[in-house]
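ERR on first pass: missing label on line 2. Operator R.T. fixed the label and resubmitted. Corrected input:
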Amino acid sequence: MFARSRQGSLRRVLVVLLIIASLILYVAGKVSIVRLGYRIEALEHEKKELERANRSLRIEASSLSSPARIEEIATRHMGMVRPPKENVVMVRRKAAPGE
Amino acid sequence: MALGYSLVAMRLVYLQVFERAALSTRAERQQERLVKLEPKRGTIYDRMGRELAVSLDVDSVYGVPSMIGNPREVARRLSLILQENPRVLERKLEGDRHFVWLSRKVEPDRARRVKELDSKQIGLQAEPRRFYPKKTLAGPVLGFTGVDNEGLEGIERAYDKYLHGAYGWVLAEKDAVGRTVFPGGPGLGYQLPKAGHDIILTIDEVIQHIAEKELDGMLGSARARGGFCIVMDPKTGEVLALAVRTSGPSRPPFNPNEPQHYRPEEWRNRCVTDVFEPGSIFKPFLAAAALEEKVAHPLERFDCSAGSIQVADRVIKDAHENGVLTFTDVIAHSSNVGTIKIAQRVGKERFSRYIAAFGFGRKTGVDIPGEIPGLVRDPRLWSGVSLAEIAIGQGIGVTPIQVAAAYCALANGGTLMKPYVVSEIVDGEGHEGRKFGPQVVGRAISPETCAKVAMMLQRVVESGTGDKAKPAGYTAAGKTGTAQKIDQRTHAYSKKNYVSSFVGFVPAVSPRLVILVMVDSPEGVIYGGSVAAPVFKAVAEQSLAYLQAAPDDVGGRMLLVTR
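pass 2 clean. output:
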């Protein structure tokens, strides 16, 4: 009778340990989910910020390359002029045989 | 064994207590919030893919009045950063609401300073804002958006339902420290916003710039009230440039980045919303009718030496003295007398048919909001003098876009094409979008007649009233116009306000471009040949060079080298 009760109580301890272990795992899992959620949110936030910076730069590039500005810089600051038509030479290349 | 049980029990109880604390805190501070997710508005590109209108996220400042115990102090500090009235801010921060906008879409460094406050009661929320990186370029065509990103004018309004996209939403929870936690991710109380579609225009940024720049130049030197320059591809009906100036050279052109600084008439696209009496630029359509109906031959001679002609109860005069002119020269020298004599051979029935065939009296259907059909009187209501008047472009109301489209028909062999500004709507998510292509409206005249009219119009530029329109290196065809405006008060023709125009196509054979120039009320010199024709020449030269169109009028000075 002593032997049997020891076996029985061993089993019960194991079961309880198992329950405790699974509870711990369950809580750890939940904590992990929440922590990952925060990490995801932080990364999403960073991604959005980078995307925003990218688009802001693209708009700036777009604005800087507007034809009005280019013409202003070319004529006013670099002294370039539009070629008078008389100086324009049209050169047309005849296709070489075999091309 | 008892120890084991008690350990377990303690552990269980501990866990239970721990969880309860966390849960109850969550329950207290939990604010389930339906967060509206703003869709990204589509971008508007020119035909070469350069951005003309873009949305960017900027920060808006909000407050949580329910958490603010001292609204006056907070308002004072914020007013220094945001440059807003502290009393207005204070009023917004009073009360018990959970959310109130304090200042929307603020400058980035003001947003940064608000962030540095690191306050739980004041926060930043990103909101999209519309930017027009090319500033004033094509302002009236693009239109602008309001504070909630709804299109209010121009393309922004006409295509708002494509550009806008669809709102999304998410059910968000707030955790113990007030951070937003999305419990489930997409599918679980979460709908992603649908981005708006991008739009590609037929407009070419460079040609638009050329048109605006040359028009502005002439408006400045002529001290005119306004003007238009339209550039189209005659084969397809695509609008490559549409420059509208309506406020005189002293006012800056419309900049959609700051619509609040402008009056509505400065952003209205008068190319489609306003009618004008075209004047002599309407004569080629009479010529086309006469040639198609074979009632006159291009070399037939007409006596215009009288200098005036009596029609019913009106005497119509020529602007210059003329002798006996061929039909071609009647057009080249813009003789009213000759034109009316030819018109009388065509007759009102036939003429009004051709007027309709060239699209006058109807909307062109161009995709710009606010188009009107113009004013063309039913031929049954024409008076005895109407035929003569309309032949020389008076007594009829047309819009600039109608004139440009009609000249496209003259340029492309007689087919009336529908003008259009949007060539493609691109789906935001990579699906198939919508493409818009050339649309034939109808046939106005036969190709043979067209060729004859083109030759006449080429004569205008070579040796007629339009010689200042000739671009160096290219042939050109077109017509000058100097139309008296109608005085709004007296309803009679104004003695001093004119609309000076030149409309034509380059090159004269196989035209690549139709260019319309109209200048409203120039001071001093008023003839179309002197005011509008030089703008045509400049726009033609620069646009054709940009398009790398081969010069077809080589002349003496230019070398055409082939190897």
